[in-house]
Amino acid sequence: xxxxxxxxxxxxxxxxxxxxxxxxxxxxxxxxxxxxxxxxxxxxxxxxxxxxxxxxxxxxxxxxxxxxxxxxxxxxxxxxxxxxxxxxxxxxxxxxxxxxxxxxxxxxxxxxxxxxxxxxxxxxxxxxxxxxxxxxxxxxxxxxxxxxxxxxxxxxxxxxxxxxxxxxxxxxxxxxxxxxxxxxxxxxxxxxxxxxxxxxxxxxxxxxxxxxxxxxxxxxxxxxxxxxxxxxxxxxxxxxxxxxxxxxxxxxxxxxxxxxxxxxxxxxxxxxxxxxxxxxxxxxxxxxxxxxxxxxxxxxxxxxxxxxxxxxxxxxxxxxxxxxxxxxxxxxxxxxxxxxxxxxxxxxxxxxxxxxxxxxxxxxx
Length: 365
Fold this sequence. Notes:
alpha/beta
């Protein structure tokens, strides 16, 4: 399944530097606003040690990790909801993503100009929130105007939809994000078609300097306090360090570099883990002589749905799934030994796939 995360934030907070560190694509990073004129897209391989384990056991011709798409979207300024700066383009691009990585500047550096001339990540966050809320309010109010006419005629369904839309409108007018509105899944369908910007899940990427990479700082603390009730993820990264890691060719060199800073994992790893947690995603594997491959699905998906990410025919003609736990693969080392030990499970349409399952699907179309 294709997953897309938009990297957003005010100009000069470190978006393009972070993007360059994440991707083989090179967005221009410069010390002035709007250096990223078009959205830059990078497909990042998701690191997973379990792929190495399976590869060592199966010896496939190739190993294919699952991937995550990051989009570096042009900087946002006050008035973007009315078309200021690159506002309209920004807002159009952000509608297409599954989640938002909101980069906030949490470091001081007189050589890097802040668009508003001060370091205040809380104010930066609120600027972007306000612009997105205003755009969402415009979308909701337009739909209210359409639904109202039908509701006035006595249509019960339209009346219910109108009530939900008014709930969202009131929240947005009060400066709250759409994701904060408490409704059930059925009621939320009233705004599904609007793809509300402030309804998307958010990871706050606090960009710090080297001195704060382990403990954070007062700016990070302020962001954590501000978003504690949002259900969002907060990740601490140093984009400057990530940029240096990206220049290193070998895994050994990267590990050694991380070790020099006392880090066990890169900011890229932390960001991907946060995205998977936020979107409630898991990984299952297929393993054979031709390839060992990772597949991303939503937690709770049944076996036919999981098969569908490989090919729609797998889901349509699903018969059964053969499932091996990766711990059993490590213990018995071959599929034949796993079968002999009775550790290969045959599951039907109601099987809920678990993170780390190694699966083989039987289907007939």
